[in-house]
Amino acid sequence: MRDNVIAKIAAGESLEQAELVGIDLRGVDLHAADFSKANLSQAKLNGANLQAADLSQANLRAAHLSQANLADANLSSANLIWTNLRGANLSGTDLHEAIYDDTTIFPEHFEPEEAGMVRSIE
Questions:
Q1: How confident is the model over 53-83, as pLDDT tens digits?
Q2: Which of 63, 64, 78, 87 has the fewest beta carbons under 10 Å from its own?
Q3: Torsion, Cα of 122, 62, 97, 9 (10° steps)
Q4: For position 5, which CATH number holds?
């Protein structure tokens, strides 16, 4: 599945609403990829280049995004519960109405409320 996803992204194809639970895309260049509404729960995206990617409304529950480049990416309304964003580049990232809770790990000094994120009350 990994090689198929990488090939689709390289061809500029959308992966909107794709079922990619647990996929391992560590360190892969996913620049400007369309993962809107995709299920990326438990995905391994550590160190991936997701600059300008569309992850709006994506399910990133328990995904590993440590050291990922999310600069200028759209994560609006994404599910980030249990997600590890330690060391991720969130410069210019749209996190408006993205959902998080106490289990979400953010980069040092990041303030989710200032980014317009919504705390889950589950």
A1: 999 999 999 999 999 999 999 999 999 999 9
A2: 87
A3: -150
A4: 2.160.20.80
Total number of domains constituting the chain: 1
Residue found by looking up tokens 């790990």 in the block: 105
Share of the chain above pLDDT 70, in %: 99
Range of the domain at 33: 1-122
For residue 78, what are its two tokens?
Answer: 């994404």
* Greatest CA separation for the chain: 40
Do 88 and 108 meet the contact criterion of CB atoms below 8 Å apart? no
Hey, which bits of the chain come out as E strands? 99-100, 118-119
